[in-house]
Design brief:
Length: about 800
């Protein structure tokens, strides 16, 4: 008995110390927060903890009475701030609740004089908190629970575009970028039976010469009985679509360096000549390269290879190789990187590429070029920063340095012979006082060009004078939509980093969904300027209100307090708050609410499935001092990352770019950080929205709870009323019901699945395939897997 009493006394002393230290921390941090204009709560909480510590030390039951009132008040305050949102309530109530639970245990309260009634009061407050949290688990205010109506749940009109249902011949299945398959063997009724049927390992893994951002973002294409895919180092591999067995491989021998900003290949493109059809109809064996795969490589080369053997197409460029660095200024390996598959028309390959963000004003050009699909000769150019964009350089001339580039996949309308390119901004991105009118003219928007001539059709700018790296990051999607009045309209959907989806008539570039110019914050950095307004599409996942202190999060009350202090220390006046030396909170962040994956459009039912995310970033301009040269030093090298310190040589400021994280590494904005959602394209209304993803693979404590995670990759929808998506920071491929967003199936992946899946049919069986290779800058597990799933054989 004596030993038990001694133990209780020791535990009481430790409890007093914990409460006292917590009180001191909360009072000190709370005073700091209030000075910045934040909440008074933390000062009150700190004082309560200090008084509770004193009363416990004095063994007074009043400690329990006081804490009972405090816990109840905290629960009410938390609901007032964030509503019944379980994960938003967690840092406000976790430590507070468990400390209250601890001090009502017999080991503590029995040491207090006359503590029975006080214990009852605190137990009641604890029970009320449990009820509130239990209600919040099943009533998420961030989710929208809806379902497609009866008409949307039936096929309105088949839209084949001349592609065999069984195939997936382009990055987005069609060059319209729809990511929709008319296959329906796998349905919402049987998808739960999917099993892994084959697994292939490419053998292409990270090396010591690679930068941090090595990524496996590939979506394979499928033609007839073969899959074609590229690895991070741009090895091109052909697989048997039924078995996953390797048929052939081509290695371009990419030599990477740690200062490359990317080592990425999102996919390859396919072309077949009319000669092939003639040969097949007459029973002849087609000549080599009548079916060819077009492979972009990060060192600025473009290869054409025979689809059946992997042999180089000798009549294309230099033995199957076109040097894309020809006529580029500041030409060095790794500075110009084509990371996305090009558009292929009957006669032209339309090629664009990335340049290094935020490095220097001495970067290669972002010129877009058209090459002859048969021989690789340059046919036309559109130089986005030139006075005459279509002018071809003469002998010894170069395209315009630093002109806005197009790094994400493009879309193509064969009937209009128009290619639609997502365009970024002239680099450096975060300060633009040096930009010429030509550099601004075609920056940050969608560019429509005649695919045969390269002539301008139209341009729509989604951000004016972009200082936030808000380049259009995703493949646009083309669809013919029947509007609410019954009119069929050829539209283009342009998902953006801001969360806006711009809906335009793809013939003219005129808005279908209004996007009025809206006033935005002013006050640029020294030497820069700002647009007074920005276009805000009325189809958007942009937050309805700017962030505030109540939106700050953390694993506990302690790091949540720090996040609130950090938030109030930054410049933030809502979207498009200009970059600053103080440090600016950028939300939506420059990672984007939409990224390179794009959206999936069921063209039959006229429904879009998409996966917006919400993760703020912080940018901070660093003025150059005497020892920090403005011009790029000789032999300077990039950082090998898009985050951290970026030099921005050639302008008066460097910049730091980082996600807005707590000291514990958790996002400072409360979850959800990512959703899946469906939009009715006839009304442009959100039908449903659900959180997706857990912290199972990104938290020190593996938790399988659904929080809503950031994503890289896109969904793929099917006629079976199912869509598939990996993309999240946990290692899963999941299937959902298109009609209502209900999760139907998931499969554990051996590495990160930051890629877009695809589906096809061969020998009467439908397969679903995903690349699981991880993402270096996303922090997911790296690997080299290609995995296929199918329904079990019927007995």
């Amino acid at each position: 008995m004596k030993n038990g009493t001694s133990l209780s006394r020791v535990l009481l002393i430790l409890t007093v110390l914990f409460a006292a230290l917590s009180g001191v921390y909360l009072v000190a941090g709370g005073i700091w927060l209030v000075k910045l204009g934040g909440s008074l709560y933390y000062i009150v909480a700190g004082l309560v903890m200090l008084i509770t510590a004193w009363l416990l030390y004095r063994r007074r039951a009043a400690a329990l009475w006081l804490y009972a009132v405090f816990l109840l008040a905290t629960t009410v305050w938390s609901l007032w701030e964030v509503g019944p949102d379980f994960w938003a309530l967690t840092p406000r109530l976790d430590v507070t609740f468990f400390f209250g639970l601890w001090i009502v245990l017999p080991v503590i309260y029995r040491l207090l004089a006359n503590g029975k009634a006080a214990r009852g009061a605190l137990t009641t407050s604890l029970a009320i908190t449990v009820v509130v949290l239990a209600y919040a688990v099943f009533n998420d205010p961030q989710e929208i629970n809806g379902t497609l109506n009866a008409q949307q749940n039936t096929v309105i009109e088949r839209n084949t575009q001349g592609i065999a249902d069984a195939d997936w011949p382009a990055y987005g299945r069609t060059q319209h970028g729809t990511r929709y398959s008319p296959l329906s063997q796998i349905t919402d009724k049987n998808v739960g039976e999917l099993q892994e049927v084959w697994r292939f390992q490419t053998g292409d893994l990270k090396t010591a010469n690679d930068p941090g951002e090595i990524t496996d973002e590939v979506t394979p294409i499928k033609i007839r009985d073969s899959l074609y895919l590229c690895t991070p180092h741009q090895q091109l591999i052909a697989l048997d679509a039924a078995s996953g067995k390797e048929k052939w491989r081509f290695d371009p021998q990419l030599k990477t360096r740690p200062d490359f900003q990317h080592v990425t290949c999102r996919g390859v493109s396919y072309h077949e000549t009319p000669v092939l059809a003639q040969a097949e109809s007459s029973g002849q064996k087609p000549a080599i390269c009548t079916r060819r795969i077009i492979l972009p490589v990060n060192d600025g080369h473009l290869y054409a290879l025979d689809a059946d053997t992997g042999a180089r197409c000798a009549d294309f460029g230099d033995n199957g190789d076109v040097n894309l660095q020809a006529n580029l200024p500041y030409n060095k390996v790794g500075a110009y990187e084509p990371t996305s598959p090009p558009v292929i028309t009957d006669s032209v390959i339309v090629v664009a590429g990335a340049v290094t963000d935020n490095y220097s004003t001495r970067e290669p050009s972002g010129v877009i070029r058209g090459f002859d699909v048969n021989n690789g000769k340059l046919l036309w150019a559109f130089d986005t920063g030139a006075k005459d964009p279509n002018k071809l350089p003469g002998e010894g001339e170069h395209f315009t340095p630093n002109s806005p580039n197009s790094w994400a996949p493009a879309a193509y309308d064969a009937l209009l012979d128009t290619v639609y390119l997502p365009i970024g901004v002239s680099t450096p991105d975060i300060w633009g006082g040096n930009r010429t009118p030509e550099m601004e003219r075609y920056a940050t928007g969608v560019l429509a060009l005649n695919a045969s001539t390269g002539k301008l059709v139209w341009f729509y700018q989604t951000v004016h004078h972009d200082l936030w790296d808000m380049d259009v990051p995703a493949q646009p999607t083309l669809a013919d939509i029947t509007d609410s009045a019954g009119n069929k309209v050829p539209v283009i959907y342009v998902p953006t980093k801001t969360g806006d989806i711009f809906v335009l008539d793809r013939r003219t570039g005129k808005t279908i969904v209004p996007a009025p110019e809206t006033a935005v914050p002013q006050g640029p950095a020294k030497g820069d300027r700002l647009s007074p307004t920005q276009p805000y599409s009325q189809l958007t996942f942009r937050p309805k209100a700017p962030l505030s202190g109540k939106d700050m999060w953390g694993a506990t009350i302690y790091d949540q307090l720090i996040c609130r202090v950090m938030f109030h220390s930054l410049r933030y006046e809502g979207p498009f708050t200009p970059p600053s030396e103080q440090g600016t909170l950028v939300f939506p962040g420059n990672l984007g609410m939409f990224e390179w994956g794009g959206i999936s459009v069921d063209t039959d039912r006229q429904v879009a499935v998409m996966n917006p995310m919400a993760l703020p970033f912080v940018s901070k301009l660093i003025p150059r001092g005497p020892g920090n040269p403005q011009e790029e030093p000789e032999n300077a090298q990039g950082s090998g990352s898009e985050s951290g310190i970026q030099p921005q040589y050639g302008v008066p400021y460097g910049v730091t770019l980082n996600p807005f994280l707590s000291p514990l590494g958790f996002p400072c904005k409360q979850p959800a950080w990512g959703y899946v959602s469906a939009v009715d394209l006839k009304t442009n209304e959100v039908v449903w929205k659900k959180r997706i993803g857990t912290v199972l693979d990104s938290s020190p404590v593996p938790l399988p709870f659904k929080m809503g995670m950031p994503m890289l990759g896109a969904p793929v929808s099917t006629a079976g009323n199912v869509f598939f998506i990996a993309a999240t920071a946990d290692n899963y491929l999941r299937a959902f019901n298109v009609a209502n967003g209900e999760k139907l199936w998931e499969a554990r992946l051996p590495a990160g699945g930051q890629a877009t899946p695809m589906t096809y049919e061969v020998n009467g069986k439908q397969y679903v395939v995903i690349a699981a290779g991880g993402h270096g800058s996303f922090g997911t597990k790296l690997g080299d897997y290609i995995i296929a799933y199918a329904l079990p054989e019927q007995k």
